[in-house]
Amino acid sequence: MAAKTKINKISRNGSKRSANGGSAAKANALRVNQYGIPDWRLEQPEFEVFEVASGTEVHYEIKGKLNAPAPPIRESRYMNREQHLELYRWMVLNRRMEQALENLYKQSKVVGGVYFGLGQEACSCASAFALGPDDWFAPMIRNQGAQLVRGFHARDIMMQYMAKSGSPTHGKDGTSHYGDIEKRHMVSPISMLGDLLPVMAGVSLGARMQGKELACLTWIGDGGQSTGVSYEGINFAAVRKLGLVLIIESNLWAYSTPTEYQVAVKDLANRAIGYGMPGVIIDGTDACQVYDATYEAVERAHRGEGPTLIEAKLMRMKGHAIHDAAAYVPKEMHEFWRKRDCIDRFEKYLMDKKWLTPGQKETMVAEVEKEIDADRAFAENSPMPEGHTAAEGVYCEAGCHVIKPKYGMPKRAKRGEGKLKQTEAAIHFK
Amino acid sequence: MAAKTKINKISRNGSKRSANGGSAAKANALRVNQYGIPDWRLEQPEFEVFEVASGTEVHYEIKGKLNAPAPPIRESRYMNREQHLELYRWMVLNRRMEQALENLYKQSKVVGGVYFGLGQEACSCASAFALGPDDWFAPMIRNQGAQLVRGFHARDIMMQYMAKSGSPTHGKDGTSHYGDIEKRHMVSPISMLGDLLPVMAGVSLGARMQGKELACLTWIGDGGQSTGVSYEGINFAAVRKLGLVLIIESNLWAYSTPTEYQVAVKDLANRAIGYGMPGVIIDGTDACQVYDATYEAVERAHRGEGPTLIEAKLMRMKGHAIHDAAAYVPKEMHEFWRKRDCIDRFEKYLMDKKWLTPGQKETMVAEVEKEIDADRAFAENSPMPEGHTAAEGVYCEAGCHVIKPKYGMPKRAKRGEGKLKQTEAAIHFK
Amino acid sequence: MIDLVTRQNLIPKNMAQATYLEAIRQGLWEEMEQDPTVFCIGEDIGVYGGAFKVTDGFIHHFGPQRVIDTPIAESAIVGAAFGASLTGMRPVAEFQFMDFIGCAFNQIVNMVAKSHYRWGAPAPLVLRGPAGGGVHGGPFHSQNPEMHFVHTPGIKVVAPATPSDAKGLIKSAIRDNNPVLFLEHKFLYRRIKEEVPDSDYAVPIGKARLHRPGRDLSIITYAAMVHAAQEAAELLSKEGIEVEILDLRTLSPLDREAITQTVKKTNKVILLHEDTKTGGLAGEIAAIINEEAFDDLDGPIVRITALDTPVPFSPPLEHFFLPKLEDVVREARRLHSY
Amino acid sequence: MIDLVTRQNLIPKNMAQATYLEAIRQGLWEEMEQDPTVFCIGEDIGVYGGAFKVTDGFIHHFGPQRVIDTPIAESAIVGAAFGASLTGMRPVAEFQFMDFIGCAFNQIVNMVAKSHYRWGAPAPLVLRGPAGGGVHGGPFHSQNPEMHFVHTPGIKVVAPATPSDAKGLIKSAIRDNNPVLFLEHKFLYRRIKEEVPDSDYAVPIGKARLHRPGRDLSIITYAAMVHAAQEAAELLSKEGIEVEILDLRTLSPLDREAITQTVKKTNKVILLHEDTKTGGLAGEIAAIINEEAFDDLDGPIVRITALDTPVPFSPPLEHFFLPKLEDVVREARRLHSY
Ligand SMILES: Cc1ncc(C[n+]2csc(CCOP(=O)(O)OP(=O)(O)O)c2C)c(N)n1
Ligand SMILES: Cc1ncc(C[n+]2csc(CCOP(=O)(O)OP(=O)(O)O)c2C)c(N)n1
Ligand SMILES: [Mg+2]
Ligand SMILES: [Mg+2]
User: Fold this and answer.
1) Cβ density class A149-180: b for 16+ within 10 Å, e for less
2) How far is the CA of B354 from the centre of ligand 4 (A)?
3) Is the shortest distance between the CB of A224 and ligand 1 below 6 Å?
4) Side by side, which strands form the sheet with C243-247?
5) What is the pTM of this model?
6) Annotated catalytic residue: which of D61, D136, D141, D227?
7) ipTM
8) Higher pLDDT, B415 or B19
């Protein structure tokens, strides 16, 4: 059998690529940081968090230019008018749904706590909105907006929190801990931060074997990215040029811990250098930047060129979860970021452009509220699961699922006929 | 109680520091890589490893400038003549001891396999040699030289391999898997790669609480540094500015896996940028570079300024362990690096300087051989452990160890008298 | 000598009411006051005082050098604690939830637990944090990880059921020269309260506690299930069935003597735990009883445990999943009449 | 229906001699030939063929796309395998040594094992690699990690003792729609050889195998210890003690019926395993026997296991540590005359 010799250059982000890889990510870059990482932001906020220890007490303070005006929105290079408006609607739905969740909580209709993405709606919605129809995603707790954008309904999320039988997990798990591998291609997160990263790399790997280059979007916090498994997952994706699109949500806190105690580097996007993959810094409160950066990363993934690390700078505007008043956060910090609210600014941008009028907004909000009301009613009226179902579903039993390649049967390598030969080589322990 | 307010700026490798932190590491840098990482090497070898897949077979090939002449040794800025000679002796002892181990293995006197640091003696010995007397270290399997430099004897290592009762672990474990927290301050490695990194950070933390700034030296392979725990440990050290001195031994292979399939970045030292700590690239076959870079990192640790990442470029000159003929390594690669042998080049350097004559060398080698012979005889004649001791020592029982702070009782913070108050705050799950 | 005394006997004079949570706080605080080598390390334990507020206020009193917030990196936390312990410190590392212990599994099992055996380095550290369910925490905030460590030679495992034991055992854990996994049952944190000695006292590791003496059958259990057993015992007592309850307190090393003694006394035994069944502690105890008291058994050893599933989130599911009072009562009746 | 047949009956006509290692290789190769969704992922499994050469030659035949060398990152390996399985692939991930499974513990236990229960996503993947001692591998190359996963609902655990079972079970593991931990005993890799069917056959997961029928007492065991039991049985047979040996083959789910059946037959039972004692599988089986066949027991259940220590390196220590032939013979005699 004539053997055709194929030479695969092993991927290595060596000298041939420019400083920060992805030419796509670079095109738009007006500015790069000291390591050549593109920084798309129109404002580089300047402040630092300090630990202040008096003789009897320890707390955090902030110093810096805290009354700088909010920056404008950066023009999108990829979204058209309709997309802007659709995205705006998702962001409004995201926020209003979370307000509804807060109310449900206050009415004791929720089991456990509630998590919010307040101030981060652009980061959740615009990124999910930039995915192609077949692409996969895996949200974290703050990315409830992404779930809406990708086809779940407020009621699904409400029922998750209310532990209802009709929830996507039938009450087995709560919050954003659900998924769908059939239609919406959402991988369920688990609580342990970072474990999704290699999983999403693996989704890309599996699809590639079936001839399909997917973008696999996930998010991780500035805190969560400290886990070892995050590193393992990103590195693996970089080595195998898998379609991981990773957004690091640098929201300045991880529960009560300021990023200063999480990492010693100012821009987490710098870690891209060490992985040998492109990184980019964006303003996570600017829906257009989030969309465009994700869009380019998705395109790159579709071309099979490998992963992208997007660092979105923003602020967690509530406590870790509903029980947490975030008393440890210096007040000025919330004030500074409130002025940078992603919805307010996007709305103003759309109105300035005359793409949205106050009247249209009112109509849209009313529709959104109606949708939420209907979903809330549905969720409230749906039953709790029956106890005995707790015993079911640990294993995939006969007939429960058909396993088959989603994108077609992988092609067999055309290689020598080769039969299995006995192995006689030396080994480590005998 | 008058409360004196102390403001601790949280460490963050922000804009105030220059591109790659450590000014010490920089002083000597004639050259930096594209990200500003100092590169002390006098030669930047140019080659790449390729995976070649024919129709019936897959193997690795190498392409590049493979007949470049070996670079000279870089003048040390810190070692004097005696130190050069002492270091040379350690390297010779390191290599000859490993040859003795190989012979013992061939005579079936060793239990299990044997690991070698052939070609990496400079990296093991010169770094350990740069430590201060109180500093700690934790060797990996290839750093048997470091153990000799820090006060263990060839017989200790031989008895570890021979599983003798008199071995440092009394036969409980083998190879370099032993330690000493009393005198030599060596932390025992475990097989799982990377787990030592947070441990060494913790040693530095514990000592700091006792008022002592230690340098804690450890090594990790270009393969081993892919583990998540490596990342967690380095990041923690960077955030808390702990005295971790980390040498990444970029020896181009991890067992049979070329670095190209391990990481997508060319210089692992670039990861220092993402950690927010200084990184430096050295020629790991140049004892002077290894010594000087470690010396500066140790000084930095002693000043309490934090960790340093040293990437030593070199080549694993044998298989993974004695059973492995390394048939997967392209031959030219061994040839290329054989010309760069760390002992031959250091020896020539010393002879060129007239610090070492052929006669002196002969005497020294004879002494070393004598020492090894004596140690081998001792090890061979020492008994195996008695079976029943297998049951002993799982727990530290009364009287077995006295736990006390090694560097003095930590000072109590002078803070308010404060009594424990009841806590009533909201929590996550009730 | 075993320590089969009722709780009351253990408690010295100087006492005040404290919840299970406050009792742990007291024990930890007192040890930090007495011994400057003790320090705390974990996520959000400093200014915030920990997710459950176990170290609330500690940073103010002991300073940020001794109450250390870390990155989210459990393997680094355990590794750093171990490293510090090698220099003679006594670190107390918090897992925000015990469910996250899997993220440090290798570091605990292979680095820490084997260090004394392998190379003679003691690791006097404590790994502590909230475990257990019943609070609708779902699959990742309700786990009982004890068996992974009961099955790991070199680390001790403690799981107190009462405030007094919680305080006395956290102190013993800190003073122990071995690594100790200290499992705090989060369901109990603020639900139970009792008189707890103010003064310095400690409860020995490795000793079970006779929670309730009885005649007819024994329930061997630990942590939150002690209270389920107590409820059942009170109900059964009305029917004339007198249940003896043995609270193991320490899960590794197990108090074989106490286990044997109660079996020899009542000849019938129920093993009750909140952890899932297969591979759970009940199996180990069943084997011990077979080894030590086979001829004393007047009926089969009965296991009552959670189902072999992850911990489900929804209240009716979690209720179904967990061992229930009615299970205990039913099985006790059945065994009594065996 | 249980499957209490002797080995011989299971084996179809078309046969050739194969070692335990070759049998695994055959099974894996055949599945990869038959099903293009099966692929291998792990450290040094490609050009090198794996530390023990299980995948030797695979990369040449199936290509580097289906035999993937990874960075040293066990959590990434398991995570990526799981991710790929979500797209309908059937990944077979190798741990270079099973001792390193602790580095992927959280990913396995919390991501993979709970996925079907929590959100209905099946994870048809196999985690395989060499486990077990007796080769002087020391504390980190000899471990038996089964119990961590037997105690984890949602993952199956398989541990074959013979070449035929190894081949038949690796095939079943790959075809299973659930995650399966496949433990290869490295002591057996090249030490045992037998006729193994060439053709396509599979051994069902969840079924024990009657390795040797007997009358007087039962030894329930698995993996390498099956052969120790066999040796003991041959010795004891000369004394007129006829030992029945049940090879569990699958450790999770356990074949309760087969266990019960052998106990009901011989009324006396020894539980034998290489894993350490406390929290080992013997405890679980003791509890099952108590539940299923308490009244059939004519003597205490005897456990023979390794010591509760790490696996020591030096041969005399490891010998002392491991269950020994003389232990089995001695305990069998004692139990026989109970
Ligand atoms: C491995 C792991 N350790 C600890 C936790 C507990 N925990 C949940 S969220 C959180 C903070 C996360 O911070 P970040 O990743 O920055 O996300 P953010 O909440 O800011 O969006 C912590 C510590 C966890 N979920 N997983
Ligand atoms: C966590 C973990 N996974 C796998 C192994 C098996 N293993 C031992 S050494 C080795 C290769 C190490 O390569 P590298 O770190 O580059 O060191 P080198 O041998 O090149 O010095 C592997 C895969 C291990 N020891 N630990
Ligand atoms: Mg955050
Ligand atoms: Mg290497």
Assistant:
1) bbebbbbbbbbbbbbbbbbbbbbbbbbbbbbb
2) 35
3) yes
4) C209-212, C243-247, C217-221, C269-276, C302-306
5) 0.95
6) D141
7) 0.95
8) B415
